[in-house]
């Protein structure tokens, strides 16, 4: 017979707060409390705590306190990740975040779902659906990423967006529900490379 943790990670109905899930959640609460009480000068200690909390984390992973998650051990993060204040990741299913991903303040990543039928829902059974975020993604402030969503590579999600469906590569997407606004083009690259060149020229002078 499968445990509730096994059922949860299989994205099936499960009961939270029992057995190994209770132990994992307790550990997460302890580590996030310690992390959120650190100061900016405690960079190495913050990194150590994140390594204990997360399933895996690449190089240059920086999260501004306060940060909240259910378990942490179901979150994988690539290299060069930044999350601004008040990030919440509800990781009752796997959350996979690629390289070079930026979160604005108060971004929420929520894998958790609850049954539509109230009688089943009131038994406290719930489920989770995995979320995947690709490489080179910028998610604006107060965006909500809902269960089961995949966000492609080289994507910008506008602030305040509610992402309910998959977002393809190389686009800007905004709104509630979040929809593709336009493609990211070669003209965008040319414009921003010119802006960067002007910035660097100012420094040289």
Automatic annotation (TrEMBL):
Name the SUPFAM superfamilies on file.
Answer: Trimeric LpxA-like enzymes (SSF51161)
Record key words, sorted: Acyltransferase, Repeat, Transferase
Under InterPro entries, the record lists: Hexapep, Hexapep_transf_CS, LacA-like, Mac_dom, Trimer_LpxA-like_sf
PROSITE patterns, from UniProt? Answer: HEXAPEP_TRANSFERASES
Q: Would the keyword Repeat turn up in this protein's UniProt record?
A: yes
Q: Name the Enzyme Commission number(s) assigned to this protein.
A: 2.3.1.-
The Gene Ontology terms for molecular function here are: galactoside O-acetyltransferase activity
Task: Identify the domain of life.
Answer: Bacteria
Coiled-coil parts of chain = none
Residues in Maltose/galactoside acetyltransferase domain copies: 5-59
Which PANTHER family does the record cross-reference, listed alphabetically?
ACETYLTRANSFERASE YJL218W-RELATED (PTHR43017:SF1), GALACTOSIDE O-ACETYLTRANSFERASE (PTHR43017)
Return the similarity comment.
Answer: Belongs to the transferase hexapeptide repeat family.
This chain's protein is named: Acetyltransferase
Gene source species: Paenibacillus nuruki
